[in-house]
Specification:
Distance between the termini: 74 Å
Number of strands: 24
Number of helices: 18
Oligomer: single chain
Bound molecules: adenosine-5'-diphosphate, magnesium ion
Radius of gyration: 30 Å
Structural class: alpha+beta
Strand order of the largest sheet: 5-4-3-6-2-1-7-8
Strand content: 15-25%
């Protein structure tokens, strides 16, 4: 029987809201740190235990909350940040008045605060949204919020959380993002009482320098050496930050840091704009590393579009889009020029298109000279074997990317990278399933430095990489040492390969089935170990590739589902020319 309609009690309403606002421990940290920043804190400490499920404490030296407003602050839709009660010009990080009410309804929650310079503060406690007690306390100016036993009254949510180490990694990455955006604020993270990240207070006025300093602390010197500054002020928007050069690329978008008016934004549509900006410089499945700040009048953006405030809407997205794309391309073109002008003239010449063609012709002539006699003998052979080789025989290579081959029925255009990738992939998979990966010991083992939390997240699983022919061990608390790699990949960029494996492992740690993982890893390995588009190949090498393709299962498409070759039958060609 239908029950009577009634308004839900506050506790239930808050719990429902919490479901939207507080997804996991890092969302608690996000809301609390945003509050501290809105309170103009100079210093923020974040203490985490048990992956944030046991305890999260955020301490700030901001403006504090007055005693008569303490209770109001944990009420739903209570905020001091919407002055004119319209949502048009929001310049604070918070504005929904939902965080404290949500957090306090799904945890054991204590708020201690003081808004004056004397040491008298006030404290209130809630458990699962129920008031527990209040009392005057000693507290210096600022606010301390303690969140214990998160989701203890929402077992379903608790189950959905990942390992402590993974949750910690998300928290650390988040605070690092804040520290890139709020350069005058000092941030400290403590995990189980141990300091794991701190931004030293620097008396530096130059924001560019602080950004360099903080970013190299987070990403290592590599990024610093492989990025350029962007600084553009045009058409209502200011774009600043650091752009990673295209060769410094990753398998996912984790290394894209995008801020709008200092707010962390992780919006898929923004990622795709950035990908377009890098498109001419980067393979389609790779992502750049960059830190980009967009600053504009608050009236240009609507920040009220996502409960966790991850996304924003721009009033004039088309204008911003073309500004971002053209500015990034402009900056990247400058570095291209820089890189090439530092090379010798000789090297420069080698890279020009005409010279490449010349080189290819010379190579082919040489080869043809030597093989002249053998060639005559082989003609006959080819005639006989026409039917055996459905992909025909390579005639030439175009744009250093496509192989043109002729078979009985017509011509075939082969994408050399896609084709080779498929072959390597199938070979790796076959080797793996027959437990027969041929390995090569690296003469000089490769040491890769990692964030120690990243390392903790993967150290167990990465051991299994040995099955795939990659022998890696932990090396101290912050590095991995790679000793062996699959023979087939010995000439590829091994650091990139291992970093991609790690990125994949962090995300998929225990959900993916083993088989999916194998396929994923093989596919990423194959991509690294394959003949790149843009490489000159000799006729023999091309024919070799065609023969291998014929022997490989599913060789008609690459690992990303694109075709590896297209066939044009004589029939169709004749139609094109109106002969039929
Ligand atoms: P919002 O941030 O959207 O206003 P919250 O629920 O996060 O909503 O916080 C409610 C109010 O409590 C804030 O508007 C602010 O006045 C006060 N507040 C919360 N945290 C702090 C803090 N760390 N320092 C000072 N005031 C705070
Ligand atoms: Mg808030």
């Amino acid at each position: 029987m239908k029950q009577k309609i009634k308004i839900l009690p506050d506790q239930v309403v808050n719990k429902i809201a919490a479901g939207e606002v507080i997804e996991r421990p890092s969302s608690v940290v996000k809301e609390l740190v945003e509050n501290s920043l809105d309170a103009n804190a100079n210093k923020i400490e974040i203490h985490v235990r048990g992956g944030g499920k046991t305890e999260i404490i955020v301490i700030d030296d901001g403006m504090g909350i007055s005693k008569d407003e303490v209770f109001l602050s944990v009420k739903r839709h209570a905020t001091s940040k919407l002055t004119n009660e319209n949502l048009v010009k929001i310049s604070t990080l918070g504005f929904r008045g939902e965080a404290l009410s949500s957090i306090s309804s799904v945890s054991d929650f204590t708020l201690s605060t003081n808004n004056s310079s004397c040491s008298e503060g006030y404290e209130i406690t809630f458990s699962a949204g129920r008031f527990q007690h209040e009392r005057p306390i000693n507290h210096i100016k600022g606010t301390t919020i303690k969140v214990k036993n998160l989701f203890f009254n929402m077992p379903a949510r608790l189950k959905f959380l990942k390992s402590d180490n993974y949750e910690l990694l998300l928290i650390k990455r988040l605070v690092q993002k804040f520290s890139l955006s709020f350069l005058n604020t000092e941030f400290n993270i403590f995990i189980e009482g141990k300091k794991v990240y701190s931004t030293d207070p620097i008396k530096e006025r130059d924001r560019g320098k602080i950004l360099y300093y903080r970013s190299s602390k987070i990403f290592g010197r590599d990024f610093k050496d492989n990025s350029v500054e962007i600084n553009i002020d045009k058409q209502n928007f200011k774009l600043t930050g650091l752009l990673g050069i295209p060769t410094f690329n990753f398998s996912n978008s984790n290394n894209i840091f995008f801020f709008v008016n200092n707010r962390i934004v992780s919006d898929k549509s923004i990622t795709s704009i950035l990908k377009v900006a890098y498109r001419d410089f980067l393979a389609y499945d790779r992502f750049p590393q960059l830190i980009l700040f967009v600053n504009c009048s608050p009236s240009e953006v609507d920040v009220n579009v996502h409960p966790m405030k991850h996304e924003v809407r721009f009033r004039n997205i088309q204008q911003l889009k073309s500004l971002i794309i053209s500015s990034i391309r402009e900056e990247l073109r400058k570095i291209n020029h820089l890189a090439s002008s530092s090379n010798t003239n000789k090297a420069l010449k080698k890279f020009t298109y005409e010279d490449k063609i010349q080189d290819a012709l010379i190579l082919r002539e040489k080869k043809e000279d030597i093989k002249f006699d053998e060639k005559i003998l082989e003609e006959e052979k080819i005639e006989k074997s026409k039917n055996l080789y459905p992909l025909g025989f390579a005639k030439t290579q175009l744009h250093d990317t496509y192989i043109i081959s002729e078979n009985e029925k017509g011509i075939i255009i082969i994408d050399q990278h896609a084709a080779h990738e498929r072959i390597v992939y199938e070979k790796l998979k076959k080797e793996f399933y027959s437990k027969n990966v041929k390995r090569q010991i690296l003469l000089i083992p490769l040491i890769i430095e990692l964030d120690n939390l990243v390392l903790k997240n993967v150290e167990e699983t990465i051991k299994n990489a040995e099955k795939y022919g990659v022998k890696v061990e932990t090396f101290g608390s912050k590095s991995l040492i790679v000793r062996e790699v699959p023979m087939i990949l010995a000439n590829s960029d091994i650091k990139k390969l291992v970093m991609d494996l790690i990125d994949g492992l962090i995300e998929t740690n225990d959900i993916d089935s083993i088989e999916e993982k194998i396929n994923k890893i093989c596919s990423s390995m194959a991509c690294h170990g394959s003949i790149r588009a843009g490489r000159i190949m000799e006729i023999d090498e091309m024919n070799d590739l065609l023969r291998k393709m014929e022997k490989t299962a599913f060789s008609g498409q690459c690992n990303h589902g694109r075709p590896t070759y297209v066939e044009l039958e004589l029939n169709d060609i004749e139609k094109l020319f109106g002969r039929k």
